[in-house]
């Protein structure tokens, strides 16, 4: 899509630069161009056609990447001030809270402001659906190494899908300023 949109942008820029070059280098002998209704119609309709050529591939990519039809696991994440609640909805409603570890409880090798007392365990190479909401204020559920960031809004259920491709510990973080920690 990037290459497609960039090619259209290059063509538009080349056309505009060519028109500017012709305007600056030729003598203005044709005065009938200021009354050209056909020309005004063309430069009104042509941008709309260009926007359609950009929008159609964008919408196709958007719908292809949006939905996982049959996820292996669904997890509901509820943001609270200073902690997150996770619910494995596929396994009888397994619910637990995940609090950030205070600096006094950190062991050597633990990461300050990232390590938690209860980690979410995820399968690798399996599509996972994450349902994200908030209990109190705006939060932002983010796992930068997975390329995920989704807003948690009170009264709204947002959804994101992802697949962990390698085993390891992925650190998530709240990307909104929501409390003392």
Automatic annotation (TrEMBL):
Residues 70-181 form the Cytochrome oxidase subunit II copper A binding domain. GO terms for molecular function: copper ion binding; cytochrome-c oxidase activity. Its cofactor is Cu cation. It catalyses: 4 Fe(II)-[cytochrome c] + O2 + 8 H(+)(in) = 4 Fe(III)-[cytochrome c] + 2 H2O + 4 H(+)(out). The chain crosses the membrane at residues 6-29, 41-63. One of its GO terms (cellular component) is mitochondrial inner membrane. It is a multi-pass membrane protein. Keywords: Copper, Electron transport, Magnesium, Membrane, Metal-binding, Mitochondrion, Mitochondrion inner membrane, Respiratory chain, Translocase, Transmembrane, Transmembrane helix, Transport. GO terms for biological process: electron transport chain. It holds the Pfam family COX2. Residues 1-69 form the Cytochrome oxidase subunit II transmembrane region profile domain. The keyword DNA repair does not apply. The keyword Magnesium applies. Binds a copper A center. InterPro entries: CcO_II, CcO_II-like_C, CcO_II_C, Cupredoxin, Cyt_c_oxidase_su2_TM_dom, Cyt_c_oxidase_su2_TM_sf. CDD domains: CcO_II_C. It is found in: Mitochondrion inner membrane. It comes from the Eukaryota. PANTHER family: CYTOCHROME C OXIDASE SUBUNIT 2, CYTOCHROME C OXIDASE, SUBUNIT II. Belongs to the cytochrome c oxidase subunit 2 family. Component of the cytochrome c oxidase, the last enzyme in the mitochondrial electron transport chain which drives oxidative phosphorylation. The respiratory chain contains 3 multisubunit complexes succinate dehydrogenase (complex II, CII), ubiquinol-cytochrome c oxidoreductase (cytochrome b-c1 complex, complex III, CIII) and cytochrome c oxidase (complex IV, CIV), that cooperate to transfer electrons derived from NADH and succinate to molecular oxygen, creating an electrochemical gradient over the inner membrane that drives transmembrane transport and the ATP synthase. This is Cytochrome c oxidase subunit 2. It comes from Homo sapiens (Human). The lineage of its organism: Eukaryota, Metazoa, Chordata, Craniata, Vertebrata. The gene is cox2.
């Amino acid at each position: 899509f990037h290459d497609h949109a960039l090619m259209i942008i290059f063509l538009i820029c080349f056309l505009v630069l060519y028109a500017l070059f012709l305007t600056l280098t030729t003598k203005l002998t044709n005065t009938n161009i200021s009354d050209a209704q056909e020309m005004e119609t063309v430069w009104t309709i042509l941008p709309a056609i260009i926007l359609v050529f950009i929008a159609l591939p964008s919408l196709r990519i958007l719908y292809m990447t949006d939905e996982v039809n049959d996820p292996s696991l669904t997890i509901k994440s509820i943001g609270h001030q200073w902690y997150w609640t996770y619910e494995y909805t596929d396994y009888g409603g397994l619910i637990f809270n995940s609090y950030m570890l205070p600096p006094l409880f950190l062991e050597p090798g633990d990461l300050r402001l990232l390590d938690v007392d209860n980690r979410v365990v995820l399968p690798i190479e399996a599509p996972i659906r994450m349902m994200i909401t908030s209990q109190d204020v705006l939060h932002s559920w983010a796992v930068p190494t997975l390329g995920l960031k989704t807003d948690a809004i009170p009264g709204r259920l947002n959804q994101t899908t992802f697949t962990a491709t390698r085993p390891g510990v992925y650190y998530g973080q709240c990307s909104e300023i929501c409390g003392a920690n």
